Description:
The complex is a heterodimer of chains A (about 140) and B (about 575). By secondary structure, chain A is α+β, with helices and mostly antiparallel strands. Chain A has a single domain (about 5-125), classed as 2-Layer Sandwich (Alpha-Beta Plaits), CATH 3.30.70.20. Chain A is about 15% helix and about 25% strand. Chain A has a two-stranded antiparallel sheet with strand order 1-9. A two-stranded antiparallel sheet of chain A has the order 3-4. The longest helix of chain A has 8 residues, at about 20-25. Chain A is globular, with a radius of gyration of 15 Å. The mean pLDDT of chain B is about 95. Chain B has 24 helices and 18 strands. The longest helix of chain B has 21 residues, at about 475-495. In chain B, a hairpin with a 3-residue loop joins β10 and β11. Chain B has about 575 residues and is α+β, with helices and mostly antiparallel strands. Chain B has three domains: about 5-205, Aldehyde Ferredoxin Oxidoreductase,  A, domain 1, CATH 3.60.9; about 230-425, Aldehyde Ferredoxin Oxidoreductase Protein, subunit A, domain 2 (Orthogonal Bundle), CATH 1.10.569; about 435-580, Aldehyde Ferredoxin Oxidoreductase Protein, subunit A, domain 3. Chain B is about 40% helix and about 15% strand. Chain B is globular, with a radius of gyration of 23 Å. The interface between A and B is medium-sized, with 29 and 41 residues. β2 of chain A pairs antiparallel with β13 of chain B.
Amino acid sequence: MIRRIKVLDSERCVGCATCMFACTRREGKASLESSRIHIRSIGGMERGFTVIICRACEDPSCIYVCPVSALKKRKVGGVKLDREKCIGCGSCVDACPMSAITMDEEEGKPLMCLYCGFCVDYCPHKVIGKEEVKNGSLPK
Amino acid sequence: MDPYLNRVLIIDLKKHSYRIEEREDYFKEYLGGTGAGLKLLKEFLDPKIDPYSPDNVIVFAIGALTGKFPMVSKTISLFKSPHNNFLGESHAGGRSAIALWQAGYGAIVIKGASQTPVYVTIDGGTVKFKDARALWDLGDTRTVGRIMRERTGRSGLRTIMRIGKGGEKLISYSTVTTETYRHFGRLGLGCVFGSKKLKGLVISGKRSVLSKNKQAYKNMYDEIYNLCLSTPTKKYHDLGTAGNIMPLNSIKALPTRNFKEVTFEKAEVLSGENLATNYLGRRIACSHCPVGCIHLAVIREKYPDEPYFYKTSLISYDYEPLYSLGTLLGIETVEDFLKILETVEKYGIDAMTAGVVLAWATEAFAEGIIGKKETDGLSPSFGNRSVYVEMIEKMMEHKNEFYKLMGKGVEVLAQRYGGRDFAISYLGNEMSGYHTGPAAHLTHITGGRHSHLDSAGYSIDQKILMEKKSITPQEMAKALFDEEAIRQVLSSLVVCFFARNVYTIDRISKCLKVFGWDLNEKDILEIGRKILIEKNMMKRDMGFDMENYYLPKRVLEVATPLGFIDPAYMKETVKHFKNFLFDKS
């Protein structure tokens, strides 16, 4: 099954960052730093939170700026990183209009969402959900 | 194990310098938090010092499970309390624990005092001392937070601890506010910040930890996570602690009008149900807590000088302020309650102590013990919101001797003016909102922090009430001791007490194992017992003796659901508790 993560309602977010911990736990880490999903307060916690996650764009900005063509567009939208090719220049980080790509400073490579949906299972407040992608295009 | 946990950041405010040292034995032996913090305090603090002097020391600590499992979301602080002159201990959540963990330290020790106001930013290994002279007279904790937020790096998951005017003016029960809505409250950490000219602390970092066994970690995490979201923990998300108002009112244990009564005719107005239905604007969570118990009420106020001009504020409410600034003061509307709470929050003072002090002043005024000379022309009466707000303002200005003493707590006031028998406080800390039976009061007497959370006596009382079976003083002392010993384990890991039913000793043992700690249930219980005893030994070195407690007459005059409190029973229980601490050690 192919899917992307969808922000259902960021107003329901309590800012616990449990989704971020889930993202890194998938790799056996306890970490916020290497998470591929990001929760930030909108200037003070009373105003609520913003959820930043790769939107799996149909026409992703990041792939155009990669000088070594390490990013490939997936058929169904979103991108795949070729870690062998990647030189860690960070151009994709700057290019993403959503600021959904961050650098893993330990490895010097960008952290790209894998669209696995693991984080969704750890959001008890229905802020994020999984959206199935069929026939190579997202539902309108 | 967790190598970063052993690292201690030692900050010297006098020299504006810092160093990083390792204390592996403290964290290995005591898990972190309260346990390791006590060892650090013992190392750095002379128990005899004046808590207002630069020699006072502040310790912040997290524990072995911080960052690894959900609801392990608290930071503990230890210091010498300017409020009761004994050990100060206070816990808070917000972003503090996860931020400190990310910064790569198990603890921070702050010593000395700065010449001029400063705030300190810690981003991993980089520590900066920033000029806070311009911030010093900015009394509103919210404004101070906003300024620091805009001027320090790494937004998102950092913690911004700060004091308001309460700490600056050395109110002995002032708090350190973190993330606007959480507090290191009760025993005056804010006052120690103020005496050190420390306006705030901003902490952030990037570090991570790798589990030993990926699958074992995921499995254990899921077990804990699912329990966090089921009953009884879920109630903290629904109504929050405010849900206590109605049950306590119905069993006649809700302290009202300075403990003169135990039911409040307007309880329904101040109930969690009413607040959630009609005022709740948002719920937020501490970092790594899926529960999200922080309830924010919306208050919309009209400016009197211009038509159609409003301001909207969000104020976090909990059971404790609803008791102390609500029922205890006979406040009859949510708007009035929120207004008093907002004032308390603005200046950063402890809501419980502020309420008990105002309730005492109201009664002292009615009894003629104090008059308009003391109150500077004000006439406090139960239910009168605007007078209470004005009194807090005058206290902040140290308007006269009375208002200056008001900033030192109810026992200091009673010592000066009389009225000790309706000053509801034990061993220098004001009472929480439970007149459930003897255990609630005994928790305040015997507990390390003189807080309802030390051994949750209110819960023992309610168990006795349900089972209709009384227990002997020795059994009571044992129940209180055992509960407090287990809570030392939680506050060393540092688990939020709302997850106390999730983190049973066997699950704690399993969680620790995933990260390389090999401790069985017996070892863990022994750690808790040891910490509790060592804590009380430190208090003894500070001149503390729990048998010196005073039982205010008011407490004896009003029946609890378990009947009238028997002073002989109290005395006997305290004696046994002390024996558990010192005779077997």
